[in-house]
Design brief:
globular; ECO RV Endonuclease, Chain A; three-stranded antiparallel β-sheet; alpha+beta; four-stranded mixed β-sheet
Length: 457
C-alpha cells in the first residue's frame, strides 16, 4: 500500500498502539519466530503491507520515511531505557568517504524515521509483546551537529586507512557497530590493505534511551547545552567552559559555594557536586540529556602533590556465572569499554599522604576519554581470556595470614588492566563455577595506565 502523506502514515502507525504482535500478524510468521529482531518484519508485512527488502532507500520512499521497530525495557528503578542500539545500514568503506554528511548513507536512511516501540518482557511470549508508542523522529539541529562530528570521525578513520580501528566509543550519538554473522564478516577498505570488520551506522542504545524517555516520560531529561550551543561547540568544549571557573578550588569550598554539605564518606557527593557545577538541577548524570545520549559516565581520579595516582580504578564486578559462556564481543568487559566514554574528574592533594591525616583535594580539571580499539582488542582481550582460562581450570586460593590470595591476573599482568577484589568486606563472597567461595572480584584499570591517560602519554 502507498501512503500519500505523513499524516496518513502516522494515523495508521498510531492505530497499532496497544495491539500485540500476535494480533497484528497475518502471515503466521510469529509461530516460527526465534529472533526478536524480526518482529519488525511482521509490522512491515502484516501491518503496512509491503514486502521485506534490504535496499538502502527508506522504507516509505515517497515520503522519505524509514520504519524502525525497536524494544525498550523498564528498569528496576522505574525508568525506561532502550534495550539495544538502533542499527541502520551497512557502511560501504569504498564509497562513504566520497560523500558529505548531508549525502551520507546514514542521512539517506535515517533523516526521518517512524519509530514503533514495544516493551521487552523476558517472561511473556513474544506474540504477547505489545506496541506501546509510535512516533515520527526527526533529529534536532543540536543532535545533527553532534552526529555530523560523529560521522566525520568515522569517515576520517576510513580516509586514514584505519577502518579496522573504528570503535563505537570514538563517537557520541552515531556509531559504527560491528555487523555480521561472525568474525569473518570483513570488508576491504580504500586506503589500507588491512581488512576491516563489517560495520553499520547505528544510533547508540544510550542515544535511543534519550529519545524514548522524551516520549515515554516527558520532562525526565534536562539539557546541559544552551539552545544552538552544540552547533558551534563540541560537548567537550562546553564541559571545559562550565568547569573551568571552578578549577583550583578545594572540594569543601565548592560544596559551600553551592550549598552542599561536605561529606567525603558519601560516595554520591562528588557526582552531585559536579552536576551542580554544570548548572543543571538533576543529581543523576543519566538525567542530563547529552550525558545520557552519549553514554558518558563520571570517574573520579585523585592525584598526589607530585601528580602520581595512588589507587587503581575499579569498574564492573565479574559475573562468574556467565564468564565461561559469553563471547568476547558480548561480554560485560568488552561492552563497558567499547561503547562508553568516561569523564575523568581530576582532583589533587596539596599534602602528602599520611595515615590518620584527613586531606581535602582541590579540583584540578577534567578529561573526556574512551579506550582505543587497539587497547580493547589487545590488553583488555588478554585479561578476559586469561581470567576465563584460570576460572575454567579452577582458581587457586592460598591462605596468607588474614587474607586469601588467588592466581587471577593481578596488577602486574599487562600494565593496563587486572582483576582484584571489589568486595565490601571479607564476607562479601560469591561462588566460582567449581563451587569454591571467593571474595567478590572486579575488573580494574592500572593506576599507571590512568596516569598515562592524564599525562597524554
Amino acid at each position: 500500500m502507498i501512503y500519500e502523506t505523513i499524516e496518513e502514515l502516522m494515523n495508521k502507525a498510531q492505530a497499532a498502539e496497544g495491539k500485540t504482535f500476535g494480533e497484528i500478524d497475518t502471515t503466521g510468521r510469529i509461530k516460527n519466530l526465534r529472533a526478536k529482531g524480526t518482529l519488525g518484519n511482521i509490522i512491515e508485512e502484516s501491518y503496512f503491507g509491503y514486502e521485506i527488502n534490504s535496499v538502502s532507500k527508506p522504507d516509505f520512499e515517497n515520503l522519505g520515511v524509514e520504519l524502525k521497530v525497536t524494544p525498550f525495557k523498564r528498569n528496576k528503578n522505574g525508568t525506561y531505557s532502550a534495550k539495544e542500539r538502533l542499527v541502520l545500514n551497512i557502511i560501504d568503506y569504498m564509497k562513504e568517504f566520497k560523500l558529505t554528511f548531508e549525502t551520507s548513507s546514514f542521512m539517506n536512511k535515517a533523516a526521518k524515521m517512524l519509530i514503533m516501540l514495544y516493551q521487552y518482557e523476558p517472561d511473556i511470549p513474544i506474540n504477547d509483546y505489545r506496541i506501546f508508542k509510535a512516533f515520527l523522529n526527526e533529529f534536532s539541529e543540536e543532535d545533527l551537529a553532534v552526529m555530523r562530528r560523529d560521522w566525520e570521525t568515522i569517515v576520517t578513520k576510513i580516509r586514514n586507512g584505519e577502518a579496522h580501528l573504528i570503535s563505537e566509543a570514538d563517537t557520541m550519538y552515531l556509531s559504527a557497530c560491528t555487523k555480521g554473522v561472525n568474525k569473518s564478516s570483513i570488508r576491504k577498505q580504500p586506503f589500507s590493505t588491512v581488512a576491516a570488520k563489517q560495520r553499520a551506522f547505528s544510533l547508540k542504545a544510550s542515544y535511543m534511551t534519550g529519545i524514548m524517555r522524551k516520549y515515554l516520560t516527558p520532562g525526565h531529561m534536562e539539557a546541559l547545552s544552551k539552545p544552538g550551543e552544540l552547533r558551534i561547540k563540541t560537548l567537550e568544549e562546553i564541559l571545559e567552559e562550565r568547569f573551568k571557573p571552578h578549577y583550583g578550588k578545594r572540594v569543601d569550598v565548592l560544596c559551600k559555594e553551592i550549598g552542599m554539605v561536605y561529606n567525603p564518606g558519601n560516595k554520591s557527593m562528588i557526582p552531585h557536586l559536579m552536576t551542580k557545577l554544570l548548572g543543571v538541577s538533576k543529581n543523576d548524570i543519566d538525567q542530563i540529556e547529552e550525558f545520557s545520549k552519549a553514554n558518558i559516565k563520571f570517574k573520579t581520579v585523585r592525584r598526589e602533590p607530585d601528580g602520581k595516582i595512588r589507587e587503581h580504578m575499579s569498574f564492573t564486578h565479574i559475573d562468574f556465572d556467565t564468564l565461561l559462556e559469553e563471547e568476547w564481543e558480548e561480554s560485560d568487559l568488552y561492552n563497558i569499554f567499547s561503547e562508553q566514554k568516561y569523564l575523568f574528574l581530576v582532583f589533587r592533594f596539596t599534602e602528602k599522604y599520611k595515615k590518620g591525616i584527613k586531606r581535602i583535594p582541590y579540583f584540578e580539571g577534567i578529561k573526556l576519554w574512551n579506550m582505543p580499539l587497539e587497547t580493547i582488542e589487545r590488553e583488555l582481550y588478554a585479561l578476559w581470556m586469561e581470567t576465563r582460562k584460570i576460572v575454567s581450570k579452577g582458581v587457586e586460593l592460598v591462605p596468607n595470614g588474614n587474607r586469601v590470595m588467588n592466581d587471577l591476573p593481578g596488577s602486574t599482568f599487562n600494565n593496563v588492566c587486572h582483576v582484584r577484589s571489589k568486595a565490601q568486606d571479607g564476607d562479601d563472597k560469591v561462588l566460582l563455577p567449581d563451587g569454591q567461595s571467593i571474595t567478590r572480584q572486579g575488573y580494574w584499570l592500572d593506576k599507571g595506565f590512568i596516569q598515562g591517560i592524564l599525562d597524554d602519554q
